Amino acid sequence: xxxxxxxxxxxxxxxxxxxxxxxxxxxxxxxxxxxxxxxxxxxxxxxxxxxxxxxxxxxxxxxxxxxxxxxxxxxxxxxxxxxxxxxxxxxxxxxxxxxxxxxxxxxxxxxxxxxxxxxxxxxxxxxxxxxxxxxxxxxxxxxxxxxxxxxxxxxxxxxxxxxxxxxxxxxxxxxxxxxxxxxxxxxxxxxxxxxxxxxxxxxxxxxxxxxxxxxxxxxxxxxxxxxxxxxxxxxxxxxxxxxxxxxxxxxxxxxxxxxxxxxxxxxxxxxxxxxxxxxxxxxxxxxxxx
Amino acid sequence: xxxxxxxxxxxxxxxxxxxxxxxxxxxxxxxxxxxxxxxxxxxxxxxxxxxxxxxxxxxxxxxxxxxxxxxxxxxxxxxxxxxxxxxxxxxxxxxxxxxxxxxxxxxxxxxxxxxxxxxxxxxxxxxxxxxxxxxxxxxxxxxxxxxxxxxxxxxxxxxxxxxxxxxxxxxxxxxxxxxxxxxxxxxxxxxxxxxxxxxxxxxxxxxxx
Lengths: 290, 209
Prior knowledge:
The structure holds two protein chains of two kinds. Chain A is α+β, with helices and mostly antiparallel strands. Chain A folds into two domains: 7-73, N-terminal domain of TfIIb; 88-283, Naphthalene 1,2-dioxygenase Alpha Subunit, Chain A, domain 1 (Alpha-Beta Complex). Chain A has helices spanning 7-10, 106-114, 119-122, 226-244, 266-277, and strands spanning 14-18, 28-32, 35-41, 47-51, 60-66, 69-73, 93-96, 100-102, 139-143, 148-158, 169-179, 182-188, 196-207, 210-219, 252-253, 284-285. The radius of gyration of chain A is 19 Å and the shape is globular. The two termini of chain A are 31 Å apart. Chain B is mainly β. Chain B folds into two domains: 2-114, Rieske Iron-sulfur Protein (3-layer Sandwich), CATH 2.102.10; 134-202, Alpha-Beta Plaits (2-Layer Sandwich), CATH 3.30.70. Chain B has two helices and 14 strands. In chain B, the strands form four sheets. In chain B, strands 2-3-4-9 form a four-stranded antiparallel sheet, with no helix packed on it. A four-stranded antiparallel sheet of chain B has the order 5-6-7-8, with no helix packed on it. A three-stranded antiparallel sheet of chain B has the order 1-11-10, with no helix packed on it. The model of chain B has no long low-confidence stretch (mean pLDDT 94).
């Protein structure tokens, strides 16, 4: 594997590890955009990311720690790591939910995260019910001022919306794609219905069709232990992984003729259009159809 | 075909015409079976009414493999979003929009299919109306995966009298051999299939030689 030359992919920030797991005693060897890297800590306690092998062997990469993760970039991002204001609210808990390797493009993971229509079939009796599969009209747009994709006014009936749920609820969702490989949602908090829980999915694109996903919960939850919140999130994500590894192609086709959307896929359509405007090639499928 | 290239395996050139891909008895009513033919991922499924179908193993909506889906009556539904396909490949229901009649343009990628001599066949490209097979009252005896190229297995055929074999190329170095038997020769032909596999993979001579 060698480092990609895709400019749009290089000029962005990516999660490459969980802060709490990175210690000088346990350096993490992993891969980002085809480039092997070591993630460790220096004597001053700061995270250090260094390239291993290839033309950049030994090079130090810019790194930061934010939201419980180590972030790095190989290029020159147009902006810093995106803001996540909820992370600073004092009564919120930030729960990192481990990491899951998935043999699929990270872009497929983002689309799956944006998708409500699969809840009844993939997360049956948890995030959806087979007898309530309808996706009501919602809005999706590319917000040019912040360069993000938003889907708003999303509603879905859920038998067990979160680890704190005691029964079904109509969850209200807002989705926010902040970079091509990082996505957030805000959904009705069962414990404080006037506020929203935030759930993030940060993706480390290992290769064009291989990813590591890091879910992060930023929730109001006075009941559950961290372990229970992690278990809930991991159960959901493992159900998704079975789908993600069996989509063909494993990369994401951007050509509108390659896959057929419906109204429920408005957010996916906006996301694919946005990726095209960025000229992002990494993790996409070069459509060669008629 | 366009969607063949989406396969997770390298797609190999393959002869036009009919290819056996499963024993009839390995595709019972109400079930979907994934098969690979020259790198092409294909779902073979049988409706509860008994008719068998062979499609590109991919839902046209978001690319999910249809072999993970579920058969209800004479329809196959995708596991991801429940899109339901009828036997001609046309999509008849999109659960996210229960009141929508899906446009005719939404259809699975369909292969011509036939059942003959205890085998399920599909046609790639142009060809005759049905597969050419030696006359006889054949029953499926065994399907075995052999980790050598299809031609290496074909070189060891045909089976003894009372048997017939078809070889399905899977990948460059893997194939699947389907052996059918005349009445009263089932056990003999099943044993032949296993012996041939050992011989092809490990160069062990057939016991009869």
